[in-house]
Design brief:
5 helices, alpha+beta, 15% strand
């Protein structure tokens, strides 16, 4: 069983870097090794598969065991030729998923900022909005003054008494 994780960071120059790390575990033997290099994973697998191949014919002749080891090496050769493509494909899918996630976040931010777009569009529109706010504030103050004047008139006082 192999468990991968990745760590992303930026160096002092601001350049992005990526490192894979994780652990590999031999289930039958219960051995587990942490790694930070894919070569460590391959070495671990080779060691255990080579031992498995040696144990396949413990009573076999030396020729049979050598034949099995040659076949084991052929399998590793096939694995090695497809390994780069498999790793590259995994990294490519991870990048596409990361880009898709970034696009989703960017879209969500863009949609949420549309509410504020009139405020941030241009200086001319900002000035118009500020002017409209000042006009509304002046009208509200004017209405408040009129309400206060109405409260002070005798008519308003008498109608208050009738309500009691």
């Amino acid at each position: 069983m192999i468990r991968f994780a990745q760590e992303c960071w930026r160096d002092a120059k601001g350049e992005p870097h990526l490192q894979w790390r994780g652990y590999i575990r031999h289930i039958q033997g219960d051995e587990e090794v942490s790694f930070t290099d894919a070569a460590e994973v391959i070495a671990f697998m080779q060691k255990h598969l080579a031992q498995l191949t040696k144990d396949a014919l413990p009573n076999g002749s030396k020729g049979e065991q050598e034949k099995l080891m040659r076949e084991n090496f052929k399998l590793w050769e096939q694995f090695a030729t497809t390994y780069n493509n498999a790793i590259y494909g995994t990294m490519e899918r991870t990048m596409k998923q990361s880009q898709a996630f970034k696009q989703q976040v960017d879209d969500a931010v863009h949609r949420s900022l549309k509410t504020w777009a009139p405020v941030t569009d241009s200086r001319g529109e900002q000035a118009q909005l500020l002017n409209a706010l000042e006009t509304l504030t002046a009208r509200l103050e004017n209405l408040s003054e009129r309400i206060e004047q109405l409260k002070k008139t005798p008519r308003a006082k008498s109608s208050k008494k009738k309500k009691k």
